[in-house]
Structures are given as C-alpha cells and as structure tokens.
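Service request form, structural biology core

Requester: graduate student, group of Dr. S.
Request type: structure prediction, single chain
Budget code: on file
Notes: please return the result as structure tokens.

Sequence provided:
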Amino acid sequence: MNMNQKGFANIVLVIIIVILVGAVGYFAFVKKSKSEPVARQALTPTSTSQTPTPKIATQNISNIFQSESGGCSNIFVYKTNKDNTIGISVSANKDKLKLSTTQKTFNTEGIDGLEVKLLMGQNIKSLYCNDAVDPNQPKSKKLIGKSGKATISISDVGESQPVWDRNYTATVILKDVHFVEENGNNSDVIIDEIIFRNVRVGWLPG
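Core staff response, request fulfilled:
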C-alpha cells in the first residue's frame, strides 16, 4: 500500500470514529431527555402529599349583635343584630337546672332544660316573647348551639308574685359555642363570647 492509500485510510478511520462518538453522544442525550419527565412524575405525589390540609374556616358572629337584650318566661333571653335578620336566644329551665344567685356553668350540648339557638331570616325579634306571631312571617333558618359553655345566674325570685309575673333578672354568658344545622350537619358559625346581662325575665308572653 503506497503513502496516498495509507493517508486516505487514516482519514476514513477518523471519520468513522467521529461518527461513532457522535452517535453514542446523541443516543445518550435522547435517553436522558426521555427519562427526566418520569423522574418529575415520580416526585409529584411526594410533594403533593406534604402539602398540609387546609382547615375549615369559621365565622365568629359574636360582635354582630346589639348590646340590648330582651327576655321573658322561665328563662328566655335573646339578642338580635341591627338589621333584625339574625337572632340568638338561650332558653333555660330554672327548676330543672336548679338556678340561683350563684353562677352555674353548663355544657350547651345534651343538657335537659337548656337550649341555645340561632335564627336567620326576617323580622326575627317578632318571634321572641310574643304569642301573636304573624302567620305570614317567612320561615327562618335555625342553628343549634353545641360544644360550648353557658354560665347562668338569676336574681332572687319574688315568690309572693303570681306565677305568670314573677319578675326577676337573669345573666347568661355564652363561650366558645359552635353551631350545627337542625339535621346535625356542622356549620362554620361560632360564638366566642356573648353576654346577656341582668335581663328581665319571669313574665309570660300574653
């Protein structure tokens, strides 16, 4: 083989080596590119599972009620908001709960003789301490108080007065009350604290 043929053979050999190196690099790059999405997909569930579950928001409505309280009966106290579209009431049986001038604290759930309610609708105040309710009054939505505390005390009761008009006062303090719907489903409504102070009760609606 002469020198020209040797030189040509060397050039061909170099070209083949360059082509092989290029091919190996190309396939390595393509393989890496294809494997990257799989790696990302594998990480996705892990990062998602580490995201904390958001807490259910609560709506504290303690400050929407007017300072004025109303009351009647044995024992019923209430407040409404300024628009008269939301009302909160506490009904307590004086004798069942053995109420006196000394404060007593009760759970708001499962106590016979104690009930906390929220009414939402129109002209709510007319539904309290009033036997003559307008038959055309729209039906109100009702929520029941659960998982909270009610602290109650009353003034001395004038036993010499007629049963239907034994005027005395009641003070009721609600704390950390969570409300549920009538069917038992949870609502997001809570009361952190509300006070019915020295409300005249004892008289019966007529």
